[in-house]
Every structure is written in structure tokens, then in C-alpha cells.
Amino acid sequence: MLVDPNPTDPQSRGDQYSSSRRAFMKTTGLTALGALLGMAVPFERNLPAGIIPVALAQDTGMDLMSGKKGLVVLGDRPLNAEVPAHLLDDDITPYEHLFVRMNGLVPQTALDQNAENWTLTIDGEVENPLELTIDDLKSRFENVTSRLVIECGGNGRAFFQPGTSGNQWTVGAVGCPEWTGVRLSDVLKEAGLKKTAVYTGHYSNDVHLSGDEEKEVISRGAPIAKVMEGDTIIAWAMNGEPLSALHGFPLRVIVPGYPASASQKYLNRIWIRDKEHDGAKMTGDSYRLPAYPVAPGTEVPESDMVVLTNMPIKSIVTFPETGTEVKAREQVEVRGHAWCGKGNVATMHVSVDFGQTWQEATLEPAANRFAWQRWRANVTLPQHGYYEVWARATDGDGISQPPLSPVWNPRGYANNIQHRIALVATA
Amino acid sequence: MKHLFAMGTGAVAVLALGAGLALAAPEPDPMTALAGRPAGADPLDPMTALMARPEEGTGGEGNVELGGLPDGPGAEDTFYQCVACHSTEIIKQQRVTDHRWDELWTWMVEKQGMAEPDEETKKVILTYLKTNFSSER
């Protein structure tokens, strides 16, 4: 794993990224490229003679990591990076502290921030197929701005035992920026949904890791009933700025409450389907859970895997940072955020005695549906020593976060294990 | 799988049996997963003690020439077969069952367009992956 050793020092951060880039160039350097000969992977599309590895490094988006602060890079190609919990303290997650989940390579249009001639096609089970420019979107539909949690379906995967495949996210593949766009439901009303419409299928122009332009990187979707609730948006801005290259320029979907893979970046088409969408990473065991609980390590037949929809109730402790020293017998504020795929966080509790007793935290109202909610608790540690703060959110249906990983699943999704931090109390 | 575990309803267990599910552990006992667990990599971050891969990292540097893959039979074959599309980071992060490695291989070929090497090389690579990035050993 490539860990940023010194997140507060920009100079060393620069060095870190350039040194990992050097390491990367070795990995995909000429010898490795030699091994590609004979494979159907046309890297040539951006290979000016002599500067092969540089062109490849560019495509991963790794260079853009200089704009991120303190993230832990899990992989450089594809680029995946998570955020330590204490850097997620803001109510509105700033760009520099939003996790990065790339399934493929960053498209050239996004790297160039060039949206000229960009259109969004709405077709399939609609009365009037649409082809909308970004200006059409901005001018023909009501513009909305809201804070919406975006969380990778695999956030928490690192805590499943036995291990499950994919990036080993711990707690930081989540954030709550403020998005601006239009309601997908408004656009679909204009297109006129046919009775046969049951699911959306999202498409984009990002590039498959193999460089094969014919190959879909990812194409997921959501049930029509979900997107017609009105919370799902087509966004062009995050925190008041045009979408960045890493987060989907120029357009993306945000399907709040669902695993972030449904929130397609680099969006150029929404195909309305007459059945559950079957694009890349909709099928097999991608973003799916067993239809019934299975013992850890069980292989489940594909036909018994169902699509993961709502993400479970969850919370994190964002302050203090784990390992912080505090004074015994003095009040300390502990705080963080809570969110839920169903949008109904009900209560929040913390424990400083390993789950033996729990005290209720205050929970601030959500800025809007599907925004994460601030919670705060004052804790007093009785004497000097080692303590853990365990945080547990409960949703409106009485379902709360488990102290250990919830039911195991083959690909390690939807892990809402309680977050714990350490506090060291001094006399 | 002769050892049936209590799953709440017999119907589910029968269904699971009927579907021919294979268990990694022959005698499922949830407490075994909790017994004798190593301490986390960072005593001041209690989450590290809950991770599937408690040592956090790849157990040493590995071979820099091979993207940090640990040396051993099949390391080179694995490197050349696998880095065409992605870096070794996604491989080094894994601690999965043998069956999952077989499944991942098939997924890489069928869905991602990986060119299959000859049978012998495939065997060498899968053995290397199951030896070094396993939840079973």
C-alpha cells in the first residue's frame, strides 16, 4: 500500500507522489509493455514514441493526487484512495478530502476539462428520446443543490474475514459534498417514461484499464421507482465548482443511498431499460449480496446473488483523531457523522467501555434528505489509561451498526461495523 | 459439508446445501474467528485489530522489480501476466480463498479480456497467488 507518510507537509507529499510514480513507471515500464505484445490491448492510442510510461501515468489520474490532502492510496492504476476518518470532520466534504474510486482510466475530456459538444442521451423505454447539452440541462430543468453522501459499496471491506476481493477500504471511502444539478426525475418526465420502463442504465466515456476503447469500464443503474423519488440528480458541480477530472467531469449521476458505483461519472447516456440493467458490474457477484445469509467464506451461485441497493446505517468518529491524549476526569467532545441508505438515521450512541454501557449523543438534523448528520457527545474518562470510543448509529427501523462485521458476502460489500477510535487519558 | 450449522431456519440451511455451497471452514464456529487474533498493526487505531489482514501491508517490501510482489516460484510469470491492465497494488491487497482466486481468474478472462497463457503458466500463477495472497494459509 502506498501511504502518504506526512499528510501535513505539502513538500513531502509531492515527493511521495513522484516517488510512487517512479515505482509505478517501473511496474508498467518497457519490460512490462513488452509482455503486452500479442495481447489485444491497444495502449498505442496515446503513445508518442519514447514517452510511453508518462502517457500511461497521466491516464490513471495519479498526477491529480497533488490536489488531495492526506489520502491513503490503495492503488495507483486504477487510482483508488481513501480518507483517514479524522480528515472527514467537515460537514461538507471539501475536494481535497473526498475519496477516489476509479474503475478505469480518467478520460481525456475530463483531464482537459473540455466539455465542448458534450451531450447526454436519454433513450430506451421513453416516448421522446432526448439529446441534451449541458446548457439544455441547466436551462430547461429546475437546478437543485444538495448535500448527498456518496459511499463506495466496498467501504469497510477490510474488516471481513476471510478477506474478500477488491480494494481494502477501511472507513474512509465516503464523503458528503454539496452537489448541483437537476433531478433525474424531471428529465425522465420530459422524456416520458413508457410503462415498460423499470431500470436505468448509466454510460460514460472513461477508458478500460486495458486501453481497449470498445470495453465498458462500468455501467450500473437504479430502479425507476428509486430515481423517480426525486433525490437522484444529474450533477455538473461539486461544492460550487465544475466537477473535477477525478470525480466525473463534466456530468455524473448521484443516486443517494445507493453504493456509489450507481453514481456514474463522466456520464453521457442513460438508457432506460425494460428489465434490471445488465451492464458491466451489474451482473455476476459485482455489487451483489447473497439472497440469504451465508457462513463466512461460502461460495454462492450467481443465481442466488441479488443487487445491493440501500447502503446500511453507518457512522464515523471524525474527532478526535484516533490515539489522541486527553485529560482524565475532564469532559471531551467526541463527534462525527451518521448516515443511512434509507435516509432515516434515528439515534446515535457512543461507548467508552468497549460496548458495556452506551450514552446517547446529540444528533443534528440533516441539511437535506441523504446528507450526513452531525453527532456530538461529551465523554468523561474516569481515570488515566487506554480507552476506546465505539460509535453506533441506529436507523428509523431500529436497525443499528454491529460491533463486528455484519453478515459475510463474497465481494465484501455494505460493511457497517461500528467505528472505534482510541483515546489515551492522562492523569 | 457434513457439519450443519445453526442458521436460524432449517429451510435456509437446506437451501444452502441444495445449492451445493462449499464452506471454507469445515466446522463453522464464529468464535474461532475471534480467538487468538493478532493485535492490530497500530495499537492506537483499534480498527487495525479488526482487519482481515492484520499485518497491514504486504509483509515486507517484496521485489521492487516486480512491483513489490514477494519473490517465489511464479512471481515473474504473475507480474508479466497481470500488470498489463493494473498495477500490483490490487493484487497485494488481497487475502482471499483459493476458490476466489479461481473465480477472479475467470472474471479477468471472461469480463476484462485477459489473454489466457498456456495451462502450465496458469497453474504456476494461480499457485503463486494462492500461496502469497491467501485467507487460508
UniProtKB/TrEMBL annotation, chain A:
CC cofactor: Mo-molybdopterin
Record keywords: Metal-binding, Molybdenum, Oxidoreductase
Domain Oxidoreductase molybdopterin-binding positions: 113-279
Pfam families hit by this protein: Mo-co_dimer (PF03404), Oxidored_molyb (PF00174)
Domain of life: Bacteria
SUPFAM superfamilies linked: E set domains, Oxidoreductase molybdopterin-binding domain
Ranges where the Moybdenum cofactor oxidoreductase dimerisation domain occurs: 308-423
Name of the protein in question: Sulfite oxidase
Organism: Paracoccus fontiphilus
Lineage: Bacteria, Pseudomonadati, Pseudomonadota, Alphaproteobacteria, Rhodobacterales
TrEMBL record, chain B:
Region ranges (Disordered): 52-71
Cited InterPro entries: Cyt_c-like_dom_sf (IPR036909)
Superkingdom to which the source organism belongs: Bacteria
Keywords, sorted A to Z: Signal
Signal peptide: 1-24
Entry protein name: Cytochrome C-552
Organism: Paracoccus fontiphilus
Upper classification of the organism: Bacteria, Pseudomonadati, Pseudomonadota, Alphaproteobacteria, Rhodobacterales
